[in-house]
Automatic annotation (TrEMBL):
The keyword Membrane does not apply. Residues 1-19 form the signal peptide. This is Uncharacterized protein. Keywords: Signal. It comes from the Eukaryota. Pfam families: HsbA. GO terms for cellular component: extracellular region.
Length: 166
């Protein structure tokens, strides 16, 4: 009976440690934003006019990691929220939008674009929406409109690029 109790207690501790998500920090979220920006820049730089673009899985992975870390961090304070939103709005969004505009231009000039690009763009939009949605949930009420504007602007760029491939 003692052995069963000890084993059962050990299993409960293991289950509890697995079920409790690791708390993340604002510094980790900021590092995630740098990682996302690096991936977006690489994505943009690898778009070659006249060629079918590849949607990198690493960008989706970076966005998913950022989403998980934002959710695990909880609510940001006012100063951290402002810094994080400014990083996304002033660094990530413009490069992302440029990449999507360039992809859209390719779709207009190259016939027979494979459906894989469309699927890749749709998946990337889903990942981006999850990331910006997590940001919206994590910022204070007075900054939610700024976060929502960032998401809406990125959605507009994605909608246009996706329409070009549809």
């Amino acid at each position: 009976m003692v052995q069963f109790t000890r084993s059962f207690f050990s299993l409960c501790l293991i289950a509890a440690s697995i079920a409790v998500p690791t708390k993340r920090t604002v510094a980790q979220v900021e590092a995630d934003i740098v990682s996302i920006l690096t991936e977006v820049i690489a994505f943009n730089n690898n778009i070659i006019e006249g060629l079918v673009p590849e949607i990198p899985e690493s960008l989706g992975t970076a966005l998913n990691t950022g989403t998980s870390d934002v959710k695990a961090t909880g609510t940001f304070d006012e100063a951290d929220s402002t810094n994080i939103l400014n990083d996304v709005q002033l660094a990530i969004a413009p490069v992302f939008n440029e990449a999507l505009i360039r992809i859209e231009a390719i779709a207009l000039h190259v016939g027979g674009i494979p459906g894989m690009v469309l699927l890749g763009l749709e998946a990337l939009k889903t990942d981006t929406d999850a990331f910006t949605g997590a940001l919206i949930a994590a910022v204070p009420a007075d900054l939610k409109s700024q976060a929502t504007t960032i998401q809406n602007n990125m959605d507009t760029a994605f909608t246009s690029a996706i329409a070009a491939f549809s």
